[in-house]
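Section: Multi-chain targets

For targets with more than one molecule, the full set of components is provided together so that the structure can be written out for the assembly as a whole rather than chain by chain. Components appear in the order listed by the source. The example entry contains two components.
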Amino acid sequence: MKFLPLLWANLTRHKRRTVLTVASVALALFLFASLRTVVTTIARNAAAGSAQRLVVQNATGLVFPLPLSYANRLATVSGVTGVSYANWFGGRYGDGKRFFANFAVDPATYLDLYPELQLPPDQREAFLHEKTSAIVGQRLLEVFGWRLGQDVTLQGTIFPGDWTLTIRGVYTPANRSIGDDMLLFHHDYLDERIGRAGIVGWYILRIANADAAPQIAKTVDDQYRSSSSPTKTGTEKAFQAGFATMWGNVSLLMNTIGMAVVFAILLVTANAMMMSARERTKEVAVLKTVGFSDGRLFGLVMLETGIITLAGAAAGLGGAKLLYRATNFNAAGFLPGFDVSVATLVLGTSIAFLLMFASGLVPAMRAARLPVVQGLRTVE
Amino acid sequence: MMHIPILYNVRSVLQRPVSTALTALGVALVVTVFIGMLALADGFRAALVRTGSDHNVLVLRRGADSELSSGLERETTDILTAEPQVAKGSDGRPLASPEVYVIVPLAQNGDTMALKNVVARGVSDQVWTVRANLRIEQGKRPESGHAEVCLGKNLVGRFEHTAVGESLHFGGRDWTVVCHFSAGGSAFESEIWGENEQFMPVFRGNVFQSLTLRLSDPAAFEDVKRAWEGDRRVTVDVHRESDFYMEQSELLGRILRILAWLITSIMAVGAVFGAVNTMYAAVASRAPEIGVLLTLGFRPRSVLLSFLVESAFIALVGGIVGSLLALPVNGIVTSTTNWASFSEIAFSFRITPGLLLSGVLFAVVMGVIGGFFPAWRAARMPVVQALR
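Its structure, encoded as tokens over all components, is:
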């Protein structure tokens, strides 16, 4: 404790240098936290799908439909406790620049299977009872400046024409991995408008026991193997994970850049510490003369480096956490639930410690090992 | 004439090798990331831009924003193919390719559980003339009436059963791989091509997704567009093929560019702080030398410039090192999803001389910004105080 004034004096000796070094550490860790959070968000969303829901799709590919007639038979498969279905609509709003997911769903069963979509009971009733109504996520409402009860018109890309829907409900997702910018409307209405009944995009099954998933998936697929539309059934978890792989090598890219950033800043801090140490050679010799031990001097330099890197870490990591929280950032709907995780904060803090050792070690050792006579002889 | 003691500065840099090297290396890493990320964005863009040709028009159903969401009746494609503006081949037949466009899941090599969505395109036998830059790399073209496919070269080796002679299973049946083709680095190189009449019954029935036509006069595009979109017999949107693919690359291309600039600017600020520290220390430790320079008659302006040059020089070294570090990523093939079609598209990092140059320039700018205030201080130093 009694060395605090000395530490403080050292830190404030070149105020500008200290501030700049702290700031560059802060920037680096801010960037690190941001990049890392992209990776963790993708990974978390990939794993977020429920293991108690199965997705049944056409074996030929994502865009091929399945007959609605499968619904009744799917419900009778042992272990299945609920069946719903949905269809990708692919509508656009306004200039079409803001992409958002919109599905036609079977309302009652869909909301039943997805309790995560939380909706006030009166809005739920209103949605269920009006064929041309829709529910939207809270964020979507804000993005487009819609309000409850408003008629909004989507342009269909797969199903051409203008589709006017009345917003009767606004849901909030109970699980952060579920997008809060979807739009759901009645499958019946889609069928009615296009005059094509009996076709759905995919089925969702709820199963009582997650362990039975592989067995149930096999039963379903076997059942339709020789039909005109064979199915491919998997857990929703695997389905989501499939979407996550569509990001390609994003994780590798983000991690590589993150490392480059950290390494670049290591150079900056190491350089700053070495410059400080060089300038203080004489002082160190004086301190040794008045009785400071080698170990104590080593510790002082390390502590000084540590204060700089940890202050930077606190600013950078804290800044990232608060900024993304405050702005409710989600990369235009691509990364729902974007939030700097505790693990990332811990990792960032460990990096700050690593920076402290890596950049403080050489100057600290030099200070500790400095022969007094030589130190005093040094001329600037 | 203004004298700048450049040699003095360059020698001074060499006097402090460690500090200089650390600063330069910091700049180098920023430049590496800068070049690497822009090379990624450029590569993606290049793949999609090259996909389209100015001479061709792409016809989709009205309102469809991608081939995936489009559908054209056979009647429509017949009417448009017979139009007089369509170029004729040497055999007198119109150069047109009505196409079936579907996405099929394929098993990736090494991990059969990981399915990726790949575009399967049913084309007419005219396609090899309609689209330029196509080259059969291996094997021979699929024969009409056979269950044969030709694979874009980016698929080869990345998925199972892609060698010539092997058979690939999708759409509920087996297809013999008879050739591999290249398409000038375009997105077609990530597609499976077969005959449209073969794909039709297997997938979506008697409907095409798109129609690609070669125009006899590319300059007449606007007239053709107006005429066909106004034609009561068909409900279509007419796009210039090159514009269409350019638009498809826009969203992701823009995201990648914004990301590149955002990340590198933040990194650059950190690196500039490093340069500022280094240069201030340099100025402080060389106060007597600066005093001498001023006494010798160098103008403060010259001293300012000389320190700017010193800082820019360090950054320049960093920039060159950074460019060299980035070079190895050139040509590395990576893949992402083309969100416009939900399919896999492979492309390669693309480093151009222009990109390297902008990387080096970026470094020099960092150096000049980082060196300005320290240089300013050096120039304003009172001679007497500096010499003391």
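Chain B touches chain A through 55 residues (CB under 8 Å).
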